[in-house]
């Protein structure tokens, strides 16, 4: 559980950095340079392992491509896109509901959920819908909220997929290969962004956050999360996500000055209560 907690807390900062960069670095360029930095940080520890296992990696290329698309190329780009029009606190709260989808994947895989987990999932989903509706029952969702819901779905799918990672692929080799493939997938979109939006200005206020998300939120956090999934499974690791909206709300207030409204507090309580009830966190601790 400690590894999942480390990943969750570190990832909380990435939502704040995405929001801080929303008007200075285009979303695709944020994602692309994030993974370039992550590759540079991970290479000394994983490049040789990936090269030694190149034949194994090639044999499981389909798995690697799907994992790279969901967890590397799509997830973070969608988060950055959401940051253009929604607050960091809202992003963290929507993301906190991703363990619900992880539990759904378990059910599809043949695991019986039980009444407690189903009720918890429904409560968490109600909290997300209220949050996206501005604190009231509504289907008139903002664009940023929908982008963030897509990001949460990608991350939950990636986490569920990690449970089926071939045992013959070492963790560092898998991450390095996924980072390489995910970055390659982003390259065409990055070229289009450069042509249409132009490059961003590399100043301390733009480079610093990208270095943070590249080193800590990517290389460190993804390694810790992968190990947590391997040790305790996606559903139990997902239970630790109850920390994330609290951390994001605190960071966004301190760094960005974003206050949390009473309606958001209510939605947070519903989401976290539902996730904890569904995942049985107190039993897994």
UniProtKB/TrEMBL annotation:
It is a multi-pass membrane protein. Gene3D superfamilies: 1.10.3730.20. Pfam families: EamA (PF00892). SUPFAM superfamilies: Multidrug resistance efflux transporter EmrE. InterPro entries: Diverse_Substrate_Transporter, EamA_dom, EmrE-like. It is found in: Cell membrane. Keywords: Cell membrane, Membrane, Transmembrane, Transmembrane helix. Residues 2-132, 143-278 form the EamA domain. It comes from the Bacteria. The chain crosses the membrane at residues 30-49, 61-78, 84-105, 117-135, 141-161, 173-190, 210-232, 239-256, 262-282. Belongs to the EamA transporter family. This is DMT family transporter. It comes from Streptomyces phaeochromogenes.
